[in-house]
Structure prediction request, 326 residues.
Amino acid sequence: MKLLHGLLRGLPILMLLLTGCDLFRAAEDELKPGSRAFFFDKQQAVELELAKSNPATGDAWSATAIRQSFDPPVWEIRSGPGGKQLVDRIANGSFLAHLIDTLTTLQVFEAAPKGPPEGFGLRPPRFAIRLKLEPGITREIHIGAPEPKSGGAWISLANPQSSPRITLVKGAALQMLGHLSSFDEFRQRTMLAPLAADDIDEVELFLRGKSYFYAQREGDIWTDRRNKPLRGSKADVSIWLERLVHSRAQAFIDDPVLSEKLLGILSSRPRFEALLKDRTGKATRLRVDSARVGSQDSVIAEASSRPGAVFVSYPELPTYFDTFRK
Prediction:
């Protein structure tokens, strides 16, 4: 009886594994104008492989990311271009979540006329995306050249059970992929992500190790250490926090030797430091200084939530810390 019960419990998963390809083939057979070209349960996506090849710009790279969390969307890069390991492996989780979501909304516009894949920009494709879903199912889509008149693009759905069918599709996923101008856009350039301004209850700022500003949230206002409401420009902590938590990296330091050297500068009395505590008391530190990177003097930064990572920041980041020094 226990054996029969175990077999019955495993039957739905077994049927899904056995019929996954058949369901996908049925979807391909129904590629009619107005129908969805590519569908799956986005919550089951656990791994994404993406390869880009743009002959016009020479931008060609591939990367693999593994989902760590669905909400908030946190993805970790397993490998970058050329399969190399990265010092900072956090992917742009929000972008990947939106990309996966919009893939399911691609709509068929029309079937392709007869012709070789090369004629539709599909050999090699501009983008090749492979999704691994739970439990053990894979979906793959190749996206080729854009079609200017319709605003769509040619795609083929890889299916080991039959020859790929080339179709013209339209949808927001095409615009999402257009934002991938380089591999850096695949990465999480927001240095403090996924920290949100609304989650922060305490702020303390330091200049060369000395505290010069403190604020704590009390309902809708910010107060000092003596619980007195902050006045004037010092009361605009929420607006300031929004700017800070959305600060983006201009570039990533992937050389481990250079990264370690710059971390030494940032850990020894950096020019600026922000100590941010959330409602549970968990602290995140952002340290900012300047250093020579390559042939240029640059603003560098590191966040305690991303151990070992050093970023080249935009020049305006240090000016954020001047706000409360006046």
Observations:
- The helical segments are 2-29, 93-103, 172-178, 237-245, 256-267, 317-322.
- The longest strand covers residues 59-69.
- Residues 1-28 have pLDDT under 50 and may be disordered.
- DSSP finds six helices and 16 strands in the chain.
